[in-house]
Amino acid sequence: MSIVLAILAAASTGYADLAAIDREVAGFTGAEIGQSGGAMTPVDRRLRLAPCASPLALSWRTQNHESVIVQCGDPGSWRLFVPIKRDLQGPGGAPAINRGDGISIAVNGDGFSVAQPGEAMESGAVGSWIRVRPINAKPNAEPMRAQVVRPGLVSLPLD
Fold this sequence. Notes:
This protein is of the alpha+beta class. It has two domains: 81 residues, no CATH class; 56 residues, SH3 type barrels, CATH 2.30.30.760. The strands form two sheets. A five-stranded mixed beta barrel has the order 4-5-6-7-8. A three-stranded antiparallel β-sheet has the order 1-2-3, with helices on one face. It is elongated, with a radius of gyration of 21 Å.
């Protein structure tokens, strides 16, 4: 289905075709939804955007390619920010935690969470496992492996 037909079909329902927006983002990034470099998730299907008679304008929001701006060219229309899935090895990807960073090490169990300060022994993207060392550890202590949750935070689940 061409973009023009998708726009016309959406116009008959009164809302923009969100699947067409997903396809445009995939074409712009060169990666499908959920793949490294592609949109993290499809555009939220609860959105009720006005149909766009103009072609969509897509651009990177930052130099790090963390999100794509999707904008309807109609005067006074809408603009979306679509987050991009980034892996450490992905194009333009950057680690969430770098070696030597000060971090919080959270130990999570059933119904509790305890955190202590630490240091990252290696770099890693969100979701990856890296070696970390608590600040109060002995100098010759073995580093622990923890999962990167977000910049500055790693987690050791006790499940």
